[in-house]
Design a protein that fits this description.
0% strand; elongated; 89 residues; mainly alpha
């Protein structure tokens, strides 16, 4: 196993991690910005106002994107384990 294989594997791992986490992070960011704009317009300064909408948004995003996220992680892990003998050399 040479350095290029390790770097390629690390790059692919980071990319898969980004892809799997992006839907959840995107939903929470959009909800947070929307709540912040709402608070600025109405001059409500309640810090705990964002928690419930974000939790609901995360659960909805997991229901929508969960199967894709799971399939992506399983296919990456399967490919990693199938090439394990090549990495050991």
């Amino acid at each position: 196993m040479n350095e290029s294989v390790v770097l390629a594997l690390a790059k692919e791992t980071l990319w898969i991690t980004f892809l799997v986490g992006a839907p959840i992070l995107g939903v929470t960011m959009v909800i947070g910005i929307a709540i912040s704009i709402f608070q600025a317009v109405t001059q409500i300064n309640e810090m705990t106002l964002t928690f419930v909408p974000k939790i609901v948004g995360v659960f909805v995003a997991l229901i929508i994107f969960g199967p894709w996220m799971l399939e992506t992680i399983v296919s990456f892990t399967s490919a990693l384990f199938s090439n394990l003998a090549m990495y050991g050399r």
